[in-house]
Amino acid sequence: MAEGKRPLPKPTPETQHFWEGAKAGQLKLQSCNECSKTYFPPRPFCPGCGSRDVKVVNASGKAKLHSYVIHARPAPGFDPPYAIAVVELAEGPRMMTNIVGCPQTPEALQLDMDLEVTFVKQTDDIALPMFKPAGT
Amino acid sequence: MKQKSVAVVGAAETTELGKIPGMSQIQLHADAALNAMKDCGLKPKDIDGIATAGETPQALAQYLGITPTYADGTAVGGCSFMLHVRHAAAAINEGLCKTVLITHGESGKSRVAPTPRPPYPDSLAGQFEAPYGVFGPPTMFTIPVMRYLKKYNITQEQLAMVAVVQREWAAKNPRATFRDPITVDDVLNSRMIAYPFRILMCCLVTDGGGALILTSAERAKDFPTKPVYIVGTGESVEGPMISQMEDFTSSKAFRVSGKKAFEEAGIAHKDVDHMMIYDAFAHLPLYGLEDLGFCKPGEAAAFIGERHSAPGGKLPINTNGGGLSYMHSGMYGMYALQESVRQMRGIAPAQIPGAKISVCHGVGGMFAASGTIIFSNEAP
Known about the structure:
The complex is a heterodimer.
Chain A: H1 16-23, E1 28-32, E2 38-39, E3 54-58, E4 62-71, E5 82-89, E6 94-97, E7 114-121, E8 127-133
Antiparallel strand pairs in A: 1-2, 1-3, 4-5, 4-7, 5-6, 7-8
Chain B: E1 6-13, H1 25-40, E2 49-52, H2 57-64, E3 70-72, H3 80-94, E4 99-107, H4 124-128, H5 145-152, H6 156-170, H7 184-189, E5 192-195, E6 197-198, E7 207-216, H8 217-220, E8 228-237, H9 252-265, E9 274-277, H10 284-291, H11 300-305, H12 322-325, H13 333-345, E10 357-364, E11 369-376
Parallel strand pairs in B: 2-3, 2-4, 9-10
Antiparallel strand pairs in B: 1-7, 1-8, 4-7, 5-6, 8-11, 10-11
């Protein structure tokens, strides 16, 4: 068993909707009503044009593996080896995540492989979005 | 800034480098500062500008007995000192002060009185990166590299070659921590840290410090040391979250900072005799060479593989051995600056004969920030 505990997020007023969504099994992004940019991480204005006229949107949950490392050493809450990945969502933004349901090896982790979101409950308040190979 | 209007007149590292359990972080700053003052014949009362990162300018001013009219606490990671040089040059030209001391000290290995850097769980990185098991720079700085390798069809052997070449430079430097030659196989068989990074592709962790003293080019003529003139400067920041880096195969901060420095200096790449590229990990020189325009995208690994940056090559890079083999306290930018100054003074252990222009390029955080300083040893 991994020693220690995985660090967990502490939501802020600007990110609360994201974590509420994750708890309910939905990946929330934001989109600008003025320039149509879809962005992440959450903030109440558009990082593309500065507009405050933005809305929360549901992401498809589809993504591709953009890059990763496989950490060979232990970290609090993790047994090595484990992959730390960045995925590119179908909507455009990228996010850090872990890849689950898949060996943590270079052979199994191929860049650009299709992935889909899954939510892994950590506490009553926090579920973390992670990604698994699509269709598994 | 105005070319060659400001010069480095004092430069020194801590008396010891490596493992220094007998000194706290702030004393490492002071040890380097006192050495730099001795280098150019100044006392604390002669310093009227102070810049530092890690410690605060106020902590250093009080500890060293300095009363500044200019203070810069820019702290953007390991390239903070490049930004300090840039800001100091502007401040001296603007008349805010006459003589600026820039210090670095870090008890990276022994951890004696370091500045705590807690990960805040409500920061954006704390919410959207820390929960996925990132654990220090080896798991963050390295994340973009698989994308880079795939895009340009670069092999791990080519990545390993960066460490091999830098060890050749380190072998010429008595102060380098690691000096024994290594091969590509040695690198690829060394302990795995975070695939595809092996330990010999990662920087050292050591204790040490360094300090610089800058003044106007006019005053520099009165100092006992050979002035090293600042001809071009650049800086930029991108952001602290590696997952949000715009392009995993190129650093925006590098491109902006490098371009600015070359424009200010009014030089071409072929004019550069010597270069330092902050190498916390083996991929940094590849990104640096490409983002500063020395190589086309994807061609830096071949450039290094063909030994152009190695001893005897046309563009000597990281001639002290770099963060991979010389030393790395945490914020290595100061040591890159020190080596550029040594090369311009003509006193480096692996001196490049006749070198007149040195480019010193730094990174802060994990591609979070960048600073570039171009030096010359030719008087205006």
